[in-house]
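no rush on this but wanted to send it before i forget. theres a chain ive been looking at and ive put its sequence and its fold in token form underneath. i want to understand how the tokens follow from the sequence so walk me through it. thanks a lot i owe you, the record is right below:
>
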Amino acid sequence: MIFVGISRVFSTKNNQQYEAIGAFWDELSEKYGRENLRGLGYNWSLDTIEYVIGLKDGEIESANCSVDLPDAGWNSVAGKTADLDLIYMKIYADGNLKYEIESFNDDGECEILYYR
């Protein structure tokens, strides 16, 4: 599977990435609609995360990144966006990830696909 989108690198110091990635989502949601987007987190370092937002269907305008992802071996968790911290706490209890793909809707629901 190829994930195509707009890539940015965010600092993970003091959990800064959450607010910054949220603003990135808000920016692109204004143009494309939140339910049409998906976000890929990968390539973590001690201080950063690479994050790409792309369309669920088609290619987003101004795409600057293409990531080749595994076709199989993904796990899925769905829940409330308000519970995202708890969802990730459970996911990371079994170890670090190589990739995570997030989808959100305006009704406060989310789905996380993750790959170790």
Observations:
- Strands lie at 2-11, 37-42, 48-55, 65-68, 75-80, 99-104, 109-115.
- The helical segments are 17-32, 84-92.
